[in-house]
């Protein structure tokens, strides 16, 4: 099958290089692990990014909520992930509401539209700033996000540049030379994130992808359809679906 032949080996190599790369915590195993601040919104990519961070660092989880788009289900999934990952600390930050049209939100509202990257990066600006500030406070070694774009195209270059500039901003004028911005899922396909998640023991039943606020996922919105497609392509059973059916 196409995916088995062409992609499994690179994915294994991503995981291997990630787990074996040099880090102060691995070099000095007798010392406590360094901290990493992890942005987590209760979703799948957040959970996988948290699991990867926890391999090498003591995670500090950061949940950002906006009054414009409160999601009790996302929040509940985040709380369940906190219970699972047992981070060193976890913080919730409330972002002020924006009383202006939001192009990114408008694109989300149309199920056929592909959201442009620029507005999504604008939404990330305050989150990266807050995460960087927490990282400085804790003298953390890394800021993790689960942002995923996929392997191809201009979008990847645009988002990679965004994080490269953030990294330079933090390290050069802010004088946090040791602080790394980690985006381990950036180039992966959605199904590869699921596959990687299974390899690092992600509790997928504690993640929320649905755009609705029901007790159970609706399995028909775009969030649910994308989730289902990723699990099918990865040839894995979604524990959230298994539990509820
Ligand atoms: Zn749904």
What does this structure look like?
There is one protein chain. With 245 residues, this protein is of the alpha/beta class. It has one domain (2-21, 34-244): 3-Layer(aba) Sandwich (Rossmann fold), CATH 3.40.50.620. Helix content is 51%, strand content 11%. The chain has 11 helices and 5 strands. Strands 3-2-1-4-5 form a 5-stranded parallel beta sheet, with helices on both faces. Strand 4, helix 8 (153-171) and strand 5 form a beta-alpha-beta unit. Helix 7 packs parallel to helix 8 and helix 9 crosses helix 10 (222-233). Mean pLDDT is 86; it is low at 1-7 and 23-30. The structure holds zinc ion. Zinc ion is lined by residues 210-212, 217-218, 221, 223-224.
Compact description:
By secondary structure, the chain is α/β, with parallel strands linked by helices.
Bound molecule kinds, no repeats: zinc ion
Q: Indicate the overall shape.
A: globular
N- to C-terminal separation?
29 Å
What class do helices, strands and sheet pairing give?
alpha/beta
Number of E-type strands:
5
Proportion of strand residues: 5-15%
- Please mark out the parts with pLDDT under 50 across 5 or more consecutive residues, or reply none: 1-7, 23-30
The average pLDDT value, as a whole number, equals 86
Number of domains: 1
Order of helices and strands: HHHEHEHEHHEHEHHH
- Please give the order of strands in the largest beta sheet: 3-2-1-4-5
**Secondary structure: helix percent:** 40-55%
The CATH topology is what?
A: Rossmann fold
**Largest sheet data:** 5 strands, parallel
- The top-level CATH class is Alpha Beta
Count of DSSP H/I helices = 11
- Oligomeric organization of the protein chains: single chain
Q: Rounded to an integer, what's the Rg over CA atoms? A: 18 Å
CATH architecture: 3-Layer(aba) Sandwich
Give me the CATH superfamily.
HUPs
